[in-house]
Design brief:
This protein is an alpha/beta fold and 250 residues long. The protein folds into two domains: 81 residues, no CATH class; 153 residues, Metalloproteases ("zincins"), catalytic domain (Zincin-like, 2-Layer Sandwich), CATH 3.30.2010.10. The chain is built from seven helices and eleven strands. The protein has a four-stranded mixed β-sheet with strand order 1-2-4-3, covered by helices on one side. The longest helix is centred in the middle third of the chain and has 28 residues. It starts with a helix and ends in a 9-residue tail after the last helix.
């Protein structure tokens, strides 16, 4: 599920030209993409503001349109900034916040002869031979999170696949910064390891979404019908997932 799957029409942000403009006294950047369309389109998302405009529209007219929509643009950018959360510690020391299974826990780091990591309702406890070395603590926790993703998220694929196909689906973990998951024409599924940091039901939705692509490699009405058959009530989860998009860029 690329983020674009959640926001229909979002093109690759690797395209286009990065420009700056001052709106209501605030300097912002926006990405300008020339596209085959009849009007100027604007979208605010995790990366900021993207503007799509026909090739024949002048830069002057584009920026006039931005000034006209300044209030909406600034409000939307502020809302996206508010969605960002400390999902991974900025300092890998005791007391730092970290998100696991949708809950913010406090990191607890202790020296020990052997590495061990465990989560409870309040803390993620890390016992590490190099507890004083933040980089090694970070590497140990990231590896543990990937292992948890295999055990708690990837394992759910088989349960959903058996409802749509007699054949198992190959699954790999992804470290993508732009998508929760994907499924190709060969039925191969990739799931972002950060799914283990989402609330469990949201991770379930992503799994069901990608499994549904095994039989419908599109976002047609038939596709959404398959998703609903796999996970009834998925629409509410789909909306909630938007609030966690910032996790991908953490």
């Amino acid at each position: 599920m690329r983020r674009g799957h959640l926001h229909d029409g979002e093109a690759s942000l690797r395209e286009g030209q990065l420009r700056g403009i001052v709106l209501a006294g605030q300097a912002i950047e926006y990405r300008l993409i020339r596209a085959r369309r009849r009007s100027i389109g604007m979208e605010v998302h995790l990366e900021g503001l993207t503007v799509r405009a026909p090739r024949w529209v002048s830069l002057h007219d584009i920026e006039a349109a931005l000034v006209e929509r300044a209030k909406w643009i600034l409000r939307s950018l502020a809302e996206w900034r508010a969605r960002r959360r400390d999902v991974m510690p900025r300092q890998w020391t005791t007391g730092a916040p970290i998100v696991f299974r949708g809950e913010q826990l406090a990191l607890e780091v202790f020296p020990a002869r052997r590495l061990s990591i465990a989560a409870d309702l309040f803390s993620l406890t890390v016992r590490h031979p190099e507890a004083h070395d933040e980089r090694q603590v970070a590497d140990g926790v990231r590896l543990w999170l990937r292992e948890q993703a295999w055990a708690l998220v990837v394992a759910r694929v088989a349960d959903y696949v058996r409802h749509v196909s007699p054949h198992p689906a190959p699954v790999r973990l992804s470290d993508a910064r732009s998508e929760w998951g994907s499924c190709n024409a060969r039925g191969e599924i990739r799931l972002n390891w950060r799914l283990v940091q989402l609330p469990p039901l949201l991770a379930e939705y992503v799994v069901a979404h990608e499994v549904a692509h095994i039989v419908e490699l599109n976002h047609s009405a038939r596709f959404w019908s398959v998703v609903e058959s796999l996970l009834p009530g998925h629409a509410a989860l789909r909306r909630q997932l938007d609030d966690w998009t910032a996790l991908l860029a953490a």
